[in-house]
Input
Amino acid sequence: MEARVKLLGHPLHQMLIVLPLGILAGAVIFDVIHLLAGGAQWALIAYWLIPVGVVGALLAALFGLADWTRIPRGTRAKRVGAVHGVGNVGVVVLFAASWLLRRGPGIGDPGTPAILLAFAGGGLSLLTGWLGGELVNRMGVGVDEDAHLDAPSSLSGRPAMQRVAGERTA
Output
């Protein structure tokens, strides 16, 4: 099942999720550094990473929702996609709540609840990321229908199944 929204022939949702996932993971890593080494600068970095990651995740979610609406009803992919999406809403809520708890005097030294919410969001993102991988790699969601190892470049304007003289056959 091909993605609904593409940029230069590639699914936009799959391109966009990388940035917020990395940014939010970075926030968790800087929280860990803060806990181990101390220093307000590490907590401050995590504080500013969280809203950037949340905004990026919300943008990616719009395109993920567009792709999800194309998945046929009654399929395992539709159910897994729903759990993936709802789980990612949970990730965003957990990180947003962590960010709100850090505001004010807690920016340089967030309390335990703020850090635990970020850790929970990071943990949940591992599960939802795995579900996204399941959708793409196991169920073929967002993959060109005729994809193959010798498909022409997405920039060529030719469909994946079209072959030209001199190309190997599958």
